[in-house]
Design goal:
Elements: H1 14-24, H2 29-40, E1 44-50, E2 55-62, E3 73-74, H3 81-87, E4 91-93, H4 106-111, E5 115-122, E6 128-136, H5 145-213, H6 217-248, E7 257-258, H7 260-277, E8 283-288, E9 294-295, H8 297-314, E10 321-328, E11 331-338, H9 345-348, H10 370-380, E12 384-389, E13 394-401
Parallel strand pairs: 8-10
Antiparallel strand pairs: 1-2, 1-6, 2-3, 4-5, 5-6, 7-9, 10-11, 11-13, 12-13
Helix pairs in contact: 2-5, 5-6, 6-10, 7-8, 8-10
């Protein structure tokens, strides 16, 4: 008659509890244990989580009223599964009374079993999980290659499903993190778009009022500095917004239209604004659009502003900056050329990477996003942004299809 000695421990560790739940989430477990009992003729089959000091039932098929249910625990030292874990090999017993190794073993005596089989289950990383086992109070013929092969196959199937569940749980956790990141992203963009730009607009408006009403030159000069600084801050904020959208959100969005006069007006306005802040700089401008250009004029203007600002900041102050825009052979091109120190080959490879900054004059460094944003705008127009550098000049050229 079968007897049962449960471990008095009433609460499982969180890890063991998770493993028990995982086994019971595998859809084939019930059928698998049923096949084990039908094939072997044994009345009890189970998947057990076995550690150095615990034996816990994960799932069970019991037609002999052995009395275990999922989550129940036996004293591990009273089980043969304990030895399976130690030896890392399967143990099969047809008839305890006739088995020279186990005829006087304490486990059959304690639990009143005559036939027994236990095969180790290993996770895909090689760690020991537990056993697939079966017992019966009567002898059974289980020491056959077919029975052992079936148990090993089932143990591999269980390991496979455990791995699949682990991967699924990992994906779920990653999705949770992505959702949290999305919330932070939206908050970040909202702060940049509203909480920083609004006070900046107020600062610029105040500077413009001072420029109009100030009587002395010192006040006008300081107000002019505040105004030009506000333009620079606005550009930094816009670049950060576009970086956040491009890397964390929906990407650089464009709304292309065909409107050459409006595009020309946008480019001319950008030149006027930058020259207002640096009236001493000489520009040579040639803008001729003889064919329709289908583009987002505001985004192209932003690209141009980033390139021209870069030339103002880092070009030779004693030489002119050349700006050209034109249409030819189905291509719209826009270029900015200035004199300055030759850009090293290693730096040329990284100019369009976010947050990349060369060593420049003090106070002239930005966030390192201007050229990155410009290159992303070029890509959004199915175009290219290229740079060339020599000892004489540095040239940035944007090209895109006219339509």
């Amino acid at each position: 008659m079968l007897s049962l000695i449960k471990n008095p421990t009433t609460q499982l560790s969180s890890d063991i509890h998770v493993d028990v739940l995982a086994i019971n989430r595998i859809p084939i477990v019930s059928q698998l244990l049923d096949v084990v009992c039908r094939t072997t003729g044994m009345g009890f089959a189970a998947i057990a989580r076995v550690t150095e000091d615990q034996w816990v039932t994960c799932s069970v098929k019991d037609s002999i009223s052995f009395g275990l249910k999922p989550g129940d625990e036996l004293k591990v030292e009273t089980t043969i599964c304990h030895e399976v874990r130690q030896k890392n090999e399967a143990i099969l017993i047809d008839d305890v009374q006739k088995d020279p190794q186990y005829f006087d073993h304490h486990t059959p005596v304690i639990y009143g079993i005559q036939s027994y089989i236990s095969v180790p289950i290993y996770r895909k990383d090689g760690s020991f999980f537990g056993t697939l086992c079966a017992i019966d109070p009567k002898p059974a013929r289980i020491k056959t290659p077919e029975i052992l092969g079936m148990f090993k196959l089932f143990a591999d199937l269980i390991a496979f499903h455990l791995q699949a569940l682990d991967e699924k749980n990992l994906v779920i956790e990653e999705l949770k993190e992505e959702k949290q990141t999305a919330v932070l992203r939206e908050e970040f963009i909202a702060i940049l778009g509203h909480d920083l730009r609004n006070p900046l607009a107020t600062t610029r408006m105040s500077a413009e009022i001072l420029l109009k009403v100030a009587k002395d030159e010192m006040t006008k000069r300081q107000a002019g500095i505040i105004k030009s600084t506000s333009f620079r801050m606005e550009k930094l904020i816009e670049n950060m917004l576009d970086f956040a959208r491009g890397r964390l959100g929906e990407g650089i969005l464009i709304s292309p239209k065909t409107d050459n006069p409006s595009l020309l007006k946008t480019l001319e306005q950008i030149i006027k604004e930058l020259q207002t802040n640096s009236p001493e700089r000489e520009l040579s401008v040639n803008l001729v659009l003889e064919q329709p250009v289908h583009c987002d004029k505001n985004r192209v203007g932003q690209l141009f502003s980033n390139l021209l600002s870069n030339a103002f900041s880092h070009g030779d102050e004693d030489t002119p900056i050349f700006v050209e825009a034109g249409t030819r052979d189905g291509i719209f091109s826009l270029s900015v050329t200035n004199s300055g120190d030759e850009i090293p080959e290693t730096a040329l490879k990284n100019l369009f990477q976010p947050f990349y900054r060369q060593d420049h004059k003090p106070g002239k460094q930005g966030l390192g996003l201007g050229l990155y944003i410009a290159s992303e705008i070029a890509k959004a127009h199915n175009g290219t942004l290229k740079v060339s550098s020599s000892k004489k000049e540095i040239n940035f050229t944007f090209e895109m299809p006219l339509s």
